């Protein structure tokens, strides 16, 4: 029996951070579920909201 190597995933999972991801533990769960990249939608929220979310990502 020959074994095939496990293919490397070439796609990335991108998540948009917003109010729903502000709850305690949600960002950690998203990363544990496979999120590779996060983005911020600057059309919604204040500059302080975006700074806080960015700081949370950098902390992890």
UniProtKB/TrEMBL annotation:
EC number(s) reported in the record = 2.7.1.40
The enzyme's main class, written as a single word, is transferase
Could you tell me which pathway this protein works in?
Carbohydrate degradation; glycolysis; pyruvate from D-glyceraldehyde 3-phosphate: step 5/5
Record keywords, A-Z: ATP-binding, Glycolysis, Kinase, Magnesium, Metal-binding, Nucleotide-binding, Pyruvate, Transferase
Does Zinc appear among the keywords? no
Q: Which GO terms describe its molecular function?
A: ATP binding; kinase activity; magnesium ion binding; potassium ion binding; pyruvate kinase activity
Task: Check the record and name the InterPro entries matching this protein.
Answer: Pyr_Knase, Pyrv/PenolPyrv_kinase-like_dom, Pyrv_kinase-like_dom_sf, Pyrv_Knase_brl
Q: Which residues form the Pyruvate kinase barrel domain?
A: 9-59
Under the heading Gene3D superfamilies, the entry gives: Phosphoenolpyruvate-binding domains (3.20.20.60)
Is the keyword Transferase assigned to this protein? yes
Question: Into which family does the record put it?
Answer: Belongs to the pyruvate kinase family.
Alphabetical list of PANTHER family matching this protein: PYRUVATE KINASE
The protein here is known as pyruvate kinase
User: Can you name the source organism?
Assistant: Halomonas stenophila
Q: What is the lineage of its organism?
A: Bacteria, Pseudomonadati, Pseudomonadota, Gammaproteobacteria, Oceanospirillales
């Amino acid at each position: 029996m020959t074994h095939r190597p496990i293919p490397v995933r070439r796609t990335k999972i991108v998540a948009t951070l917003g109010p729903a991801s502000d709850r305690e533990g949600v960002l950690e769960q998203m990363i544990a579920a496979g999120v590779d990249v996060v983005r911020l939608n600057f059309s919604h929220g204040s500059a302080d909201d975006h700074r806080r979310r960015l700081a949370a990502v950098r902390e992890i």
